[in-house]
UniProtKB/TrEMBL annotation:
Regions crossing the membrane: 21-44, 50-70, 439-461
Protein name: Type VI secretion system component TssM1 N-terminal domain-containing protein
Domain Type VI secretion system component TssM1 N-terminal intervals: 199-445
InterPro entries cross-referenced by the UniProt entry: P-loop_NTPase (IPR027417), T6SS_TssM-like (IPR053156), TssM1-like (IPR017731), TssM1_N (IPR025743)
Sorted UniProt keywords: Membrane, Transmembrane, Transmembrane helix
Length: 495
């Protein structure tokens, strides 16, 4: 991690809501402790004693705590309302079977919310406080398979016997995956392409974004994952690839404009096991090695205009590392057919690099009319090893692999847990919400300034009045002393 990245992470931590509350409480406590004895009303100093100052600090802490509990209760109500509305919206069926399923899903969603609050890791948290990620991509891109085989912990599985909550009605094309570290929203492929029933899909998509904006006004999402299957990407014509890329770009623009924010975007090329040689090349990896990241993560300070160009450079480095591993794999393998596939695998990836570069440029090339998304990285994954691998070096299909191995997930877990989830604070807050808060802050500061001016003015006039009163009293005392002295002198003369 570079020094600038460390500085940014420290800055994110220090400017978080929790950190600001702690710093504010400590500052106020110090002010009460050291400044309290200096505050006096007439001759009475209410915070003179240690007990009085301790009581005041405890009272402030109690107010903070009650305020926090109240916000949590309000958020809990919002979570339940969101669950109902996300499930019910746009439901236009009178089918008793579907209505029964909706009732079951409401119960399951609420149980999921309650469960996440009961899990030890989530004490004091709710689903709003977890990072939320949307996964988009064309149909058959392997979105659900990637999530299902990610190796993440799903608290729902042990208690409810399910990994996810299926949507019905307005969200019947979204699956909600409640993990121990994030909420993953798996959208239907047709929401991305909107090619079959464009008007219906577009309205449903916009309605879904509206609900996210309504119930998560501060930061609706923390990032977007784009899933694209390797076999589909390589088998499509240039026109088909460009259409998919433009549809994805359009969805990203809609997310940015409707949610009023910027967010990190991660591209996942799934089903890389369908590239001939993958299973043979990586078949001997240990479970820990299978969880590592295989892909490209860009530097945070990288210029958005050069991100796609950086992909080519980084991907070339990735292939070079594979080439370094090549000799070891060839030495350990005796089967000639498998050795041939292992040898050709880096060359297969070079073909993918060219196609992937064109696909990414179509999505992330800047123009004057659109705001460029925050492109964070590209990752290669394999959730299950199913189907027939293909060779992209020639037109012939490679046929069945001669390598026997167990189906397991490759290069998914640490992409999510080690790269994507830790960057949850890269997403900006909703600019519309920020604008409202800005005026609220301006109003609060203005009122505070007016109050300070009022108190200062009152103190000044009080001080001036008291000073004048003291001066008049001193003059009166002096006059009285003079009169008393004169009277005493006259009495002495008479004697």
């Amino acid at each position: 991690m570079s020094f600038s990245q460390k500085i940014k992470k420290v800055t994110y931590a220090l400017t978080s809501r929790t950190a600001m509350l702690v710093i504010g409480f400590l500052a106020l406590s110090l002010l009460i402790w050291f400044g309290g004895p200096l505050i006096a009303i007439a001759d009475y100093v209410p915070l003179q004693s240690i007990a009085a100052r301790l009581f005041t600090i405890i009272l402030v802490l109690l107010v903070f705590s009650v305020s926090k509990i109240y916000r949590l209760m309000q958020q809990s109500k919002r979570d339940e309302k969101m669950a109902d509305e996300l499930i019910d919206s746009n439901s236009d069926t009178n089918s008793s079977e579907v209505n029964e399923e909706i009732t079951t899903l409401k119960t399951r969603m609420n149980e999921a919310i309650d469960l996440l609050k009961d899990v030890k890791l989530f004490k004091g948290k709710n689903i709003y406080q977890l990072p939320w990620y949307i996964m988009i991509g064309p149909p058959g891109a392997g979105k659900t398979t990637v999530i299902h085989n990610s190796g993440l912990d799903y608290p729902l599985k042990d208690k409810l016997g399910v990994d996810l909550v299926h949507g019905v009605g307005g969200t019947r094309n979204c699956d909600w995956w409640f993990t121990n570290k994030a909420v993953l929203i798996d959208t239907a492929g047709r929401y991305t392409t909107q090619s079959s029933h464009a008007k219906h899909d577009s309205r449903a998509w916009e309605g879904f974004l509206g609900l996210l904006r309504k119930y998560r006004p501060l930061r609706p999402i923390n990032g977007v994952m784009i899933s694209m299957g390797i076999s589909e990407l390589m088998s499509q014509t240039k026109t088909e690839r460009n259409l998919h890329a433009r549809a994805i770009k359009q969805r990203l623009q809609e997310l940015q404009s409707q949610l009023g924010m910027t967010f990190p975007v991660y591209v996942i090329f799934s089903k890389v096991d369908l590239i001939e040689g993958f299973r043979e090349f990586f078949g001997e990896l240990t479970e820990e090695e299978c969880e590592q990241v295989w892909g490209v993560t860009f530097e945070l300070d990288l210029d958005k205009d050069t991100q796609v160009d950086a992909f080519n450079k980084e991907f070339h480095t990735l292939i070079s590392k594979l080439t370094e591993m090549l000799n070891r794999r060839l030495i350990n393998e005796r089967n000639e057919e498998i050795r041939a596939k292992i040898f050709e695998f880096p060359r297969q990836l070079r073909v993918l690099q060219g196609v992937g570069d064109a696909f990414l440029k179509e999505i992330f090339t800047p123009n004057a009319y659109e705001e460029l998304p925050m492109f964070r990285g590209v990752y290669l994954t394999s959730a299950t090893q199913e189907g027939t691998p293909s060779s992209f070096l020639n037109e012939a299909n490679a046929g069945e692999s001669g390598y026997i191995n167990q189906s397991k997930s490759f290069f998914i877990k640490n992409v999510l847990e080690g790269v994507i989830f830790p960057e949850q604070n890269l997403a900006s807050t909703n600019k519309h919400h920020d604008k409202q808060n800005k005026w609220l802050r301006v109003g609060s500061i203005s009122l505070a300034c007016i109050a300070l001016f009022g108190f200062s003015t009152s103190w000044y006039f009080s001080f001036a009045w008291n000073s004048n009163l003291i001066s008049e009293t001193e003059d009166a005392i002096a006059t009285y002393q003079e009169l008393d002295t004169a009277s005493f002198d006259r009495n002495n003369l008479l004697v």
